[in-house]
Amino acid sequence: MKLDVLGLQFDNVTMEEALAAGERLLDGDRPGIVVTPNAEIAYEASKDADFRDLLNQADLLLPDGAGVVLAAKILRTPLRSKVAGIDFAANLLPIFARRGTRLYLLGSKPGVAEAAAEKMKVLAPGLIVCGTHDGYFQTDDAAISAVNDAAPDALFVCLGAPKQEKFMFAHRGELATVRLMAGLGGSLDGFAGNVKRAPKWMIRLQLEWLYRLVKEPKRLGRMMRLPKYILLAFRARRKG
Ligand code: UDP
User: How far is CA 228 from CA 14, 176, 208, in A?
Assistant: First the structure.
């Protein structure tokens, strides 16, 4: 069932239902697209009709993050669950291993996808990672032929938003073997273990965001999208 949150038609599913939907895509006969916008990306989509339309055409639109869940609650149309992209991906891995699904990892800086693949194979013994490619390719064509040469069934596209969504929709017709592709932002960095966590005391005080901000001040503009998105939800509720 779809649920509208500020113009995005989220799938109102639990993690189990999202995984079942993912398996249905694998059983399908065309490349299915999964997108996982968080509040920052949903805020961008609220300002950009083209991006919003693209996201709404996905076969599975999952709420990545507490911000989207909070906005839905404010709007008095609560979502059943947060389904974070990286958790969805992690839970797919044993399913891929069981089914013999061939997975290709596309995105992030050189070396990251390979490191993520090694970690994934530990998480899901038997997993077949049939190829990897960094996300800084010269032309889309080069990336597409690299993917097609490996003939994957599943493709994780980790180029950041909106690049990964545009890539998936622009090229779905050229990816003959792919049945499930998911745009997963910085997830490969997460799997590879490249994202430095804050010290434990900061995590305990819920200050990890502050650690990130101090390390990477250019995130400020991006981080401000979360409160702006929540404000949008309050405004929309007032308008009724
Ligand atoms: N990235 C990429 N190619 C690009 C730009 C970005 O592969 O041209 C990768 C980048 O290395 C990072 C990810 O895309 O791994 C973006 O992560 P970020 O957390 O910024 O994106 P989000 O999860 O917010 O969409």
Answer: 26, 40, 20
Query: Residue of the nearest CA to atom 5 in ligand 1?
Result: 159
CA distance 182 to 177: 15
Across 84-112, b (16+ Cβ under 10 Å) vs e yields: bbbbbbbbbbebbbeeebbbbbbbbeeeb
Structure token pair of residue 146? 């690299």
Biggest CA–CA distance in the chain, Å, is 53
Residue to substitute in 155, 189, 196 for testing ligand 1 pocket (most ligand atoms within 8 angstroms of CB): 189
183 CA distance to ligand 1 middle (Å): 10
Question: Across residues 11-32, what is the average pLDDT?
Answer: 98
| In contact, 66 and 81? CB cutoff 8 Å | no
Rounded CA-CA distance 99/22 in Å is 12
| Ligand 1 closest atom vs CA 222 | 24
Encode pLDDT of 80-122 as tens digits.
999 999 999 999 999 999 999 999 999 999 999 999 999 999 9
Q: How far, in Å, from the CA of 186 to the mean position of ligand 1?
A: 5
What's the predicted TM-score (pTM) here? 0.94
